[in-house]
Amino acid sequence: MKKFCKSFSFFVAVLIGLENECLGYSWPVDGNPQTWTYGYTFAEKVNGQRHLGVDIIKDPLTPIRAPYQCTVVISKLDSGTEKNPADGYGYYLVCTYKDPNGVERVFGICHTSRRAGYEAKGVGSYSEGTILAYVGYDDENGLGGPHLHWFDYGEPYSSFKYPGYAPNSYGTDVDYDKEGNYIGGKFTDPIKLWSSYINPASLVALYSSGTTNSLILACYNLNGGQDMFGAPWSNSSFGPYVHPWPDNSSDPNVVWLQDFITTSDHWWQIVDNPAAGAAFPVHGQILTFWHNNWGYRDYGSPSSNEYYATDIATGHQLVIQTFIKGSVYHYLGYDTVSGVSREYQSTEFQTSGAGGSPEFTPTILKTLIFPCLHDSLKKEAN
């Protein structure tokens, strides 16, 4: 073969650039994805089947380190290699770990050495940076020259099966194919996934295909970037990438957006509005109301940033954001005195900005009084 963060320590590691400390995530071998040489890549077609991992070509006895604290649950010689030294995955490890959201996943490293003094670790728990194994030589490596085969599986170990390629009899497959089409499997490209762990800012405005949403990127950069929005957050089956809401991209009401989470666990979405030629940020109580009330279906996309307004009847200060569905405008907001969120009619308020033009007024401190219960907010159409 030719390889949200709810954890404050994760964001600390990202922000100060740690690579091999227990606080953060790191790469399993020296170098990085830009400097590595590859054999078969993720989802590459090999004899008509999709490759479920990525092959990183390295010299024999190159150390392979735990990229995060993990538990080795399998440490053994592949049965295929046992029968034929030139076949199979050689000696391999299967490990469980927690992603930045605290969800258990599985990664594996294959084609490791069995030379005396360079044997792989056995079953047990290991800290990030621990040498788990070494790249094997040709004569002990199974199929292919010296390389690390690395895979990542998006479910707990209890459901894990690894046939190496897809389709297969287990029904396991890749999440996206090489063209960026959604396949729906549980195996994901470890390069893309771990890039989001190590440097989440690199995923800003990216679709899973690797293309960029220029409107979301412009909004992110113009409104404070990482200081304002934090890092891309995996809050859907599409991971931390730009994705549709609802998950069915062919839904006639679909909107495209990207989730972000700050170090203080504050949820943002930047939502694309192609008709306006712009993207707009939504957060706090307005985001909560929009999601809890089938916003993509009933209110459409945001067409302004937040702005202050005055309730004509009560004199209370409001925070309003304009949305548009078809040609109909909707004004979603909340009363800063009562804390009540609802849709307003344009006749119920006066804007506070000069000339009535919307102003971007992120109200993080105010909206944190009303916590974003983001784990239970998202309502998807079935």
Account of the protein in words:
The chain is 14% helix and 30% strand. The strands form five sheets. Strands 1, 4, 6, 7, 8, 9, 11 and 13 form an eight-stranded antiparallel sheet that branches. Strands 19, 20, 21, 22, 23 and 24 form a six-stranded antiparallel sheet that branches. It has eight helices and 24 strands. Strand 20 and strand 21 (317-325) form a beta hairpin. It folds into two domains: 8-194, Glucose Permease (Domain IIA); 200-376, no CATH class. The protein is an alpha+beta fold and 382 residues long. It has helices at residues 8-16, 79-83, 190-198, 214-222, 225-229, 284-292, 295-298, 364-367; strands spanning 37-38, 45-46, 49-51, 54-57, 63-65, 70-77, 91-98, 104-112, 124-126, 131-134, 147-153, 165-166, 187-188, 231-232, 243-245, 255-261, 267-273, 278-283, 301-302, 307-311, 317-325, 328-335, 341-344, 349-351. The radius of gyration is 24 Å and the shape is elongated.
